[in-house]
Amino acid sequence: MTAPRDFNAVVTGVEIICPGVLRMGLHAPGFSGTPGQFVEMEPSCGPFPMTRRPFTINRLLPAGLEVVFEVLGRGTGLLAGLKPGDEVRTLGPLGKGWRLTSGRWLLVGGGMGAAGFPFLAGSLFEPPLVLLGASTSKRLLHTGCDQLTITDDGSSGVRGRVTELLARTDPGQFSTIAVCGPLPMLKAVWASVPDQHRRKVQVSTESRMGCGWGVCEGCSIPVPGGGYKKCCTDGPVFTGEELDWERWSE
Ligand SMILES: Cc1cc2nc3c(=O)[nH]c(=O)nc-3n(C[C@H](O)[C@H](O)[C@H](O)COP(=O)(O)OP(=O)(O)OC[C@H]3O[C@@H](n4cnc5c(N)ncnc54)[C@H](O)[C@@H]3O)c2cc1C
Ligand code: FES
């Protein structure tokens, strides 16, 4: 695994891919990482620096990477204002990513949870099937894979939740079920995977992060037995069985 480093990445491009969602190219020669790992980007280097914000690696480039992010609050708002040529303090690659097992994978994503799927899909042994849910069709990310989509408002043709797509899919055809999205969606997916297939589930978790490298303990996620693991260094990817689904809340 590549050791993380702290560097100035140079913004190469910012593209709006759907309302409020940006793809940002970062020039960072020598940067490497594995699918599911993330970087922490500092929104401001001014007199009042902000905590860095974590983003999954969307794609590796020959001399850098791309991230895809939704503009939600102050940090992502400042990052969205960066222009090509601007520098952004970046730390990474961080965390432990997907365990890349053989066989065909089923990727289940909700909203921005699909941001890391292009990198993951391109690293698998067989092309995966992607099940993707979003609030509306304008927020469905394109993963470049075979993709079945569903939206809360029916604007992509089918109205409903991603668990409905999962219910129409035979988990027996897949070696691994990779899930990423908001916590209520992760819980609904876990609850709907039949018991005999739960050992195949890997989950990319999200938590509010401080340091991103294991020091502040701000990103704890409950695990069975009453303990906690750190999203930033033990994860963000865990097997479904490593998590205490009952105790885990936002
Ligand atoms: C490992 C990891 C990878 C991530 N990858 C991506 C990605 O690829 N693309 C992407 O769009 N987002 C990703 N996120 C979430 C992203 O980091 C947050 O949306 C971002 O930090 C918000 O910063 P802000 O200052 O704009 O928002 P804030 O002002 O801090 O908060 C605005 C709103 O966003 C919510 N929020 C903030 N941080 C998180 C978080 N970590 N998880 C869920 N909700 C949050 C807050 O509850 C609040 O409602 C990732 C988070 C983690 C932990
Ligand atoms: S974010 Fe600081 S320990 Fe995980």
List the helices and strands and how they pair.
Elements: E1 5-18, E2 21-27, E3 38-41, E4 53-56, E5 59-61, E6 64-70, H1 74-80, E7 87-94, E8 105-110, H2 117-123, E9 129-134, E10 146-151, H3 162-167, E11 176-180, H4 183-192, E12 201-204, E13 220-222, E14 228-230, E15 237-239
Parallel strand pairs: 8-9, 8-11, 9-10, 11-12
Antiparallel strand pairs: 1-2, 1-7, 2-6, 3-4, 3-7, 5-6, 12-15, 13-14
Residues 209-212, 214-219, 230-232 line the site of FE2/S2 (inorganic) cluster.
Please tell me about this protein's structure:
The chain is built from 4 helices and 15 strands. The protein is mainly β and 250 residues long. It folds into 2 domains: 5-94, Elongation Factor Tu (Ef-tu), domain 3 (Beta Barrel), CATH 2.40.30; 105-242, Rossmann fold (3-Layer(aba) Sandwich). The strands form 3 sheets. A 7-stranded antiparallel β-sheet has the order 4-3-7-1-2-6-5, covered by helices on one side. A 6-stranded mixed β-sheet has the order 10-9-8-11-12-15. A hairpin with a 5-residue loop joins strand 13 and strand 14. The longest helix is centred in the C-terminal third of the chain and has 10 residues, at 183-192. The two termini are 30 Å apart. The model has no long low-confidence stretch (mean pLDDT 94). Flavin-adenine dinucleotide binds next to strand 4, strand 6 and helix 1. FE2/S2 (inorganic) cluster is lined by residues 209-212, 214-219, 230-232.
